[in-house]
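notes to self, project folder thing:

trying the whole complex as one job this time. last attempt i did each chain seperately and stitching them together was a nightmare. two parts in total, labels are on each line so i dont mix them up again. if this works i'll redo the older ones the same way
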Amino acid sequence: MERSIDTMQPVISAENISLTFQTADGPVHALKNVSLTINQGDFVSFIGPSGCGKTTFLRAIAALETPTAGTLSVAGMTPDQARRRRAYGYVFQAPGLYPWRTIAGNISLPLEIMGFARPDRQQRIARVLDLVDLAGFGGKYPWQLSGGMQQRASIARALAFDADILLMDEPFGALDEIVRDRLNEALLDLWKKTGKTIGFVTHSIPEAVYLSTKIVVMSPRPGRITRVIDSPLPRDRPLEIRDTPEFIALAQQVREGLREGHSYD
Amino acid sequence: MTEAVARGNGGVNPTLRALPILTVLLAIVVVWYGAAVWMNAPWVRDQAARAETTLTTGDLIRQTLTLERPVLPAPHQVAAGLWEGIAGQKITSKRSLVWHGWVTLSATLAGFAIGTVAGILLAVGIVHNRAMDQSVMPWAVASQTVPILAIAPMVIVVFASMGVTGLLPKAIIAAWLSFFPVLVGMVKGLRTPDAMQLDLMHSWNASRAQQFWRLRLPSSLPYLFASLKVAIAAALVGTIVGELPAGATAGLGARLLSGSYYGQTVQIWSALFAAAILAAVLVMLIGALERLTLRRMGLAR
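result (full assembly):
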C-alpha cells in the first residue's frame, strides 16, 4: 500500500454543512455552514473550546451524526456508504477495550466482525501490535496494562483493518504530559509509515501544531471554523521542533485564531 | 488475581468474619428457647392442673422443651426432626426429607430453567424491539402483582383437568416467579454498553447479532448472575406454593401442609428448615458460578 504523499486528492469534503440538535431547551447549532477539504494523507487537527463542534464534525465524517444541511462526502461517497465500506478507524478518549478479551482478542474484534479469516487476523494483529510498540503484549488483559498502553492498543485496534481514514477524538486527553509526548511522537511515526489520512480532535495547542499538516481552529455558538492554518513544518518532526521559531510562530497563529473566536464573550 | 481475592474477602481473618454471624445465631437460639418455653407453658400448666400436680420451674422448662406437639418446637427438637428426616430414613421413603426435597428441587430447577430462558428472551426482545419495549414491561409487572397464592391453585387445577400433574404445573408456577428478576436484570444488563462502545460497533458496521453476542451479552453477565440468585430463591418459593393446594403428597410444600393438618409442628419446622437450607445452597452455588465466571472475564468487582 505505497501511497504517494503529494497526490493531494481530496478525501473528505464538506460544503456548507450545518448540524442542529433539537433539545428540550430549543435547537442547538453544533455546526453552522462549515466547509472544509481534507486531502489524502493529511493530518488534520481540530482545535477549539468545548461546544465548538469539533467532535460533532468528526462524528459527522464517521457517519455517527448526520448533518441537517449541506453536503459531506468521503472518497466520493456519503459518510454512511464509507462507513459500510469500513473506511474509518475511530479512536475515542477512553480505550474502550473489553475486559474479557486479551489485547490481541480486542484487536481481533473488528476483524472478526468484518469476517477476516483466522490466519489473516493473526498476521494483522502481530503487525499492528508492532506498529504501536506493543509486540509481546497480545496475551495480556487490559487491566494488566497502563493507561497509555491501553490507548495504544485501542489505536492498534483502529488500524488493524486498514481503514484509510483514522479519526481520533482527544485520544490522549486523559493521559499525562510525558506519556502524551511519547504517544504523539509514536503517532507521527505511524502516520508516516502508513500514509493514512488522520482527523484529530484536541484541546492542546502544542499537540495540534506538533502533529498536523493542517490545523482547523473552531469556535462555539454556533460551531464554526474560524481559521484553517496549513503548517509549513516538514513531515519529519523530532520533538525538538517545538523549540524552533517556526513552531512558536505557528502556535501563536493558532492562539490568535482561538482568541478571535472568543472576541464576543 | 491475588489482589482480587483479597478484596473479595474484605481482607479480614475468617475467624473474625464468622464472629458477628455466630453472635447473631446465638442470639436467635436464645430468643427461640425463651419463646418456646413461654409459648408452650400454658399447655404444660394446663396438663399439670388436670393431673393435679405442681410444677417446679425446672419441671416447667424441661416439659415445655420436650413436648411431642409443641406450639413452638425448641431448636434441638427441630434439629432432631431434621436429622431424622434426612439421615434416619431410606431416601426412597415417603418420610424422608431427602425424597421430598428432591421432588421440590426437581420442580424448582425445571421452573428456574423455564423462567430464566423466558426472562432472557423477553429482555432480548425488549432491548431490540421498540414495540416490545413499550408493551411487555407493564404486563410483566402486572404478572407479579397478582398474588401467587391465588394463581397457583388455578394453574394446578387447569393442568390437572388436562391430565397433567406432578412436576410441570409446579415448574410453571416457579417459572412465573423466577422470570421476572431475570427479565429486569437482563434489560438493564443488555443496556449497559455505553454510547462509545456502541459507536465503535457502528463504525465497524457490525450487525445487530454481532453487537449482541460480542458486546451486549458479555456485558450483561454481572446483572444476569445477580438476577439468577433472586430467581432461584423465587423458584423455590413458587414450587412450594404449588405443592400446597389440591392435596399434593410429595415435596416440601406437601410436608408443610400435612404437618399443619396433623399438628406436627416439628415436621413443619423441619420441612421449613429443609427448604431454607435448600435455598441457601442453591443461591451459594450460583454465587460460586458467578465468581468463577466474572473472574475469568475480568469483570469481578
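what i see at first glance: Chain A touches chain B at residues 59, 62-64, 83-84, 86, 88-90, 92, 94, 96, 98-100, 109-110, 112-114, 141-143, 161 (CB under 8 Å).
need to look closer tmrw
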